[in-house]
Write a structure and sequence with these properties.
Two copies of one chain form a homodimer.
Chain A (H helix, E strand, L loop, with lengths): L7 H10 L6 H11 L5 H13 L3 E4 L7 E4 L6 E5 L5 E3 L6 H11 L2 E12 L1 H4 L20
Parallel strand pairs in A: 3-5
Antiparallel strand pairs in A: 1-2, 3-4
Helix pairs in contact in A: 2-3
The structure holds a DNA duplex.
Chain lengths: 145, 145
Amino acid sequence: MPRPFQYRDSILALLKDNPIHPTVDWIHAQLRRGHPRVSLATVYRTLRTLVAEGTLCELPFGTSESRFGLTLEQKHYHFICEQCHKIYDLPIRPRMTLERSVQAETGHQVRRHTMEFYGVCRECTEGPASVTSLRPPREQKEKTE
Amino acid sequence: MPRPFQYRDSILALLKDNPIHPTVDWIHAQLRRGHPRVSLATVYRTLRTLVAEGTLCELPFGTSESRFGLTLEQKHYHFICEQCHKIYDLPIRPRMTLERSVQAETGHQVRRHTMEFYGVCRECTEGPASVTSLRPPREQKEKTE
DNA sequence: TTACGTGCAAAACGTTTGCAAGAGT
DNA sequence: ACTCTTGCAAACGTTTTGCACGTAA
């Protein structure tokens, strides 16, 4: 149990295979398939460490629960599906011009910026058949499995 | 109806005079100056109603506490000061072109988008003298008002 | 009287932390 | 031995809710 970050790589693999910026609960549930004894606290602690070292980024969107994803490059633009609640990285290059114009217009010192697009993702649009809704609706907390 | 939203207008006035998207605690503290008996639950309930009717918008940034502001026009771009934690509306017109290009590149149906710029606001930059830090640092909860 | 906003307290929810235990060195 | 992660449960901060009250119709 007390190996230096027993679940670290498993969590990273999960996030790599599921680039949807899952919730902690989702990660915990998936992790328990292979490690039935892993506790939620450990998942939180591991995630916090990974964020601190820069491997992961935490997204404050979605209001209630934190969402985590790999810090791939500088992709700070996201698409958030309002139906299945997945969060995708967007392959759009940062518009640094915007930072300059905001700074010029407001006098605020801009250090970085983020961007979120909301809508319905392709999976959800193309039909309920292909939907692998990995996230239960916000109302009911599904802890099963 | 008994007291049709006794505090509704006071809250809206507060938000209009302080376009910094305050926390619920800040709103509650300010409101108690004129209405010493108002409860936090009422503030939450009123804010929820105002958000539901579209008068206010809730910002999920800042991680821990929800922030609220008036739904002025379609200004969905914000500047977030990492020092005093104020959130300013940005007078930048929406870049609708971005929505179209994201939709074209990803196949996701884009309905809207938001944008956040992070840095240090002009007030904080121009010197600590002019800083009216309306928000205590996240560590200590200052209820003394 | 009825309806419903309100205050209060408790509950609910996500997240963090204290502590003892166990694996690795 | 010593270190450090882990599981468990309790604590924590934010938000919601149950319930009785009281005010406006």
